[in-house]
């Protein structure tokens, strides 16, 4: 048996198949838990990376440039939009803009890495418009309105007025749950993380994302 034929007959595994990455959108009303779930996934799944958004809002205590957000001026943000450097962008809380830089996302997807998006329903809608085959969207619901309010107050990051405003907008946020492919009620964090991870594993195995599947199938012929 030649070296080439021996290599051709070597056992293949699912993990060895080349694939295009997934844009995994996690969205929720403020306090719904999407940021915590994203952080847990990042700690347990080496194939994932987080999309870092650009924003015009002010930096909060404990946030770092390039890790949590790219903090830019409104003028710089508009320049990026005009240059076609954003996958999506939207005007959200307190008249601040948020957007997703395009280049790092495409690089990760082409390398077979999955990109997690912590964005709202407007961002999800735009991503579905520009990259429908790459996006997998999950909406995270709180177990009750009381729990949602409690989570916002426990953060101690925003003023009473800001919290009240966010609660006032939460119903509008929640009303868009039908635009997402999956919905999870975040009553137990560990279970919510498991459910999101299961969704991600299933989406990774989709035939249309396995870029060298046809070549592999050819090797299965006698």
Indicate the topology.
Elements: H1 3-8, E1 23-27, H2 34-44, E2 48-50, E3 53-55, E4 69-71, H3 74-82, E5 86-91, E6 97-101, H4 102-110, E7 114-118, H5 121-130, E8 135-141, H6 145-155, H7 160-174, E9 182-185, H8 189-204, H9 213-218
Parallel strand pairs: 1-7, 1-8, 2-7, 3-4, 8-9
Antiparallel strand pairs: 3-6, 5-6
Could you describe the 3D structure shown?
The protein is of the alpha/beta class and 222 residues long. It has one domain: P-loop containing nucleotide triphosphate hydrolases (Rossmann fold, 3-Layer(aba) Sandwich), CATH 3.40.50.300. 42% of the residues lie in helices and 18% in strands. The chain contains 9 helices and 9 strands. It has a 5-stranded parallel β-sheet with strand order 2-7-1-8-9, sandwiched between helices. A 4-stranded mixed β-sheet has the order 4-3-6-5. A hairpin with a 5-residue loop joins β5 (86-91) and β6 (97-101). α2 (34-44) packs across α8 (189-204). The longest helix is centred in the last third of the chain and has 16 residues, at 189-204. The chain is globular, with a radius of gyration of 20 Å. The model is unreliable at 1-8 (pLDDT under 50).
